[in-house]
Amino acid sequence: MTLQQLKYVIEVARSRSISNAAQNLFISQPSLSNAIKELEKEMGIMIFSRTNKGIMITPEGSEFLGYARQVVEQAALLEYRYSDTSSPQQHFAVSAQHYAFAVSAFVRLLKEYNPDEYEFTFRETRTYEIIDDVKNLRSEIGVLYLNEFNKKVISKFLREGNLEFHELFEAKPHIFISSKNPLAKSDYVTLSDLDPYPYLSYEQGDYNSFYFSEEILSTLSRPKNIKVSDRATLFNLLIGLNGYTITTGVISHELNSRDIIAVPLKVNERINIGYVTHKNLTNSTLANIYIGYLKETIAEELRQLQL
């Protein structure tokens, strides 16, 4: 086993394709395939399964990749410590539901940690894709919610992916609406209050199950429904159409317009927001810093919400 082979495996896992990985590594596809096969033979495991749909990481491959990333990162740090080369490029990725606090923590990570060279990724994406990203090591951290309705199904997918859910906070449901919405000055709203207004939610693609919905109370029937794929469009429609969406109430006005406000929703529900990690990975330094910033950002936003 060589350090180069470990780098090859990590790139294939990231690219999800032998041919794309070979291009990125500037080697031939047969050379890359042979290097991986030799490593698998030496380790006595199958890291990748080859299917008609492409490369899939096996369960034992996920565990191996967790150790491989740590070895490669430590080798880069060792080289930096005892050579005259510049600091190693830092890599970090997060996948999250559409939460402003997750973006705020990511911004703070870049501003305050400020590595000389980096390749960071932040994916605001669908619920299933968050789980799949962390499972297949495309992201180190995933941010999503659980509640009584979806917990059994989502937890099953987390177990199958060898993932762990770590709770950050429990939120009381709120709605986001325009500051000019007729309900904006209400102390709270009920579900019946919302009937005249368009309901906005995030579409979930092929996994458009109620259990994967980014909003609670997804099984309720509503007269006016609009599905969107990004936060900017959702906010524009909240303002332009006097629509609403159901959320945690935590909003970062540093990143979002003050034209959007949160109003408590009077329902007997709770939302448990947390982050997901891979059981076979030790958190990187960047992951631990990001988690710390997540907690601090949420605490500050909750204080603002209570004012």
UniProtKB/TrEMBL annotation:
Name of the protein this chain belongs to: LysR family transcriptional regulator
Protein's organism: Oceanobacillus chungangensis
Recorded family membership: Belongs to the LysR transcriptional regulatory family.
Residue span(s) of domain HTH lysR-type: 1-58
CDD domains: PBP2_LTTR_substrate
InterPro entries in the record: LysR_HTH_N (IPR000847), LysR_subst-bd (IPR005119), WH-like_DNA-bd_sf (IPR036388), WH_DNA-bd_sf (IPR036390)
GO (cellular component) term, any one: protein-DNA complex
Keyword Transcription annotated: yes
Keywords annotated in UniProt: DNA-binding, Transcription, Transcription regulation
GO molecular function annotation: DNA binding; DNA-binding transcription factor activity
Highest taxon in the source lineage: Bacteria
Any single Pfam family the record assigns to this protein: LysR_substrate
Keyword Transcription: yes
